[in-house]
Amino acid sequence: MSAAARIHRPRLTTVRRDDGRVSPLELFFDLVFVFALTQVTALMSEHPTWTGLGQGMLVLSALWWAWAAYAWLTNYVAAEEDRERLLMLAVMGAFLVAALAVPEAFDEHALEFAIAYAAARWLHIFIFAEANEDIDAGQAIRRLARTAVPAPALLIVSAFTDGATQTLLWVLALATDFAGPYVFGVRGFRVSPGHFAERFSLIVIIALGESIVAIGTGLHELDAGTIAAALLGLVLAFGIWWSYFDVVAIVAERRFRQSEGERRLRLARDSYSYLHLPMIAGIVLMALGMKKTLAHVDEPLKTVSSVALFGGIALYYAGHLGNRLRIVRTINRPRLVAVLVCIALIPVGTEVDAIVALVIACLVTSCVIAYEAVRYADFRARIRHEGG
């Protein structure tokens, strides 16, 4: 092919998203991710063991990394154009197949999951390359491909193994994929902060939706106890929502907007792609704990279920701590205390009735909200209403 033909070959449409609006196609794409989260909860619910919990977190990490990659892509590519829509449909198909295979991703459907995941990751590289006409971005894509191409291949290899070997290959594959942007950097990419921040905020909402779904799927009968537990589950999800959207999301987006150049790219990588994962994982674990609570409200939680409930909340707050440390270089002490308290409450959850454990979980998140609302009242008002 001649140089002229390469220069003038058809490219995908790129776009500068300065208005911060997430497109309808992106929201449609995220619906498939919702189903994938539900399947992760189902996997852990059907296998309420340490192995099941670990497998669920590995699958969630893989799905998250693939989703985050497309958050970067659709921040750059005008996904509403015809050709781009069809390519995104192909990606959604790969995500859907992967989601369908999630409950048996380490067993009967390991190969189906691995191939579908690989297709999603490799399509990402292909679409990014097709959309790119910038030399710096082209070099960034080639650096990204150094890990994004071989890592999914390792998952395909793992499908032909089992036990410790399979788990080791999964860990190696994910470590390779996650390490790429950190080791090789993100220089050459570009992000529009408003759109990017909104995309990740919406995925937090979507993950919280899974916790609401868990309330319904955990019910076996409707009586006074389960109604009370369902309402407590709603209060808990509301507390988690409040802790993110009250101030955290606002401050993070403003700092993101104020950053420029490579500093902005590193902030997008660290604060959003990396540090939102523990938040999402915490919410999914919490949803599992809520589901187990609703199933047997008058019995103590099993150890794994108590770890899911209280450990999930702790992991969620730990994500907040890491995010704040990365953005403003300070520690949120109330949330650090909440992390330690939730860890200490794990054995308590195995001794009291499940509904009591849920009450305690609600008290923890509610106390964090109440303390911060009073202690930081002036700061909250300035951030939320005065743009300070």
Explain this structure to me?
- The structure is a single chain.
- With 388 residues, the chain is mainly α.
- It has 2 domains: 22-190, no CATH class; 195-388, I/LWEQ domain.
- Helices cover 79% and strands 0% of the residues.
- The protein has 17 helices and no strands.
- The chain has helices at 3-8, 24-46, 50-74, 82-101, 110-131, 135-148, 150-158, 163-184, 193-218, 224-245, 248-258, 261-274, 276-295, 303-328, 333-349, 354-375, 377-385.
- α9 (193-218) runs antiparallel to α11 (248-258) and α10 (224-245) packs antiparallel against α13 (276-295).
- The longest helix is centred in the middle third of the chain and has 26 residues, at 193-218.
- The N and C termini lie far apart (55 Å).
- Mean pLDDT is 90; it is low at 1-10.
Q: How is this fold's topology laid out?
A:
Elements: H1 3-8, H2 24-46, H3 50-74, H4 82-101, H5 110-131, H6 135-148, H7 150-158, H8 163-184, H9 193-218, H10 224-245, H11 248-258, H12 261-274, H13 276-295, H14 303-328, H15 333-349, H16 354-375, H17 377-385
Helix pairs in contact: 2-3, 2-4, 2-9, 2-13, 3-5, 3-8, 4-5, 5-6, 5-7, 6-8, 7-8, 9-10, 9-11, 9-13, 10-13, 10-16, 11-12, 11-14, 12-14, 13-14, 13-16, 14-15, 14-16, 15-16
Keywords:
about 80% helix, about 400 residues, 17 helices, 2 domains, mainly alpha
Summarize the structure.
This protein is an all-alpha fold. It is built from 17 helices and no strands.
Instruction: Tell me which CATH architecture of the largest domain applies here.
Output: Up-down Bundle
Cα-atom radius of gyration? 21 Å
Mean pLDDT: 90
Instruction: Quote the beta fraction.
Output: under 5%
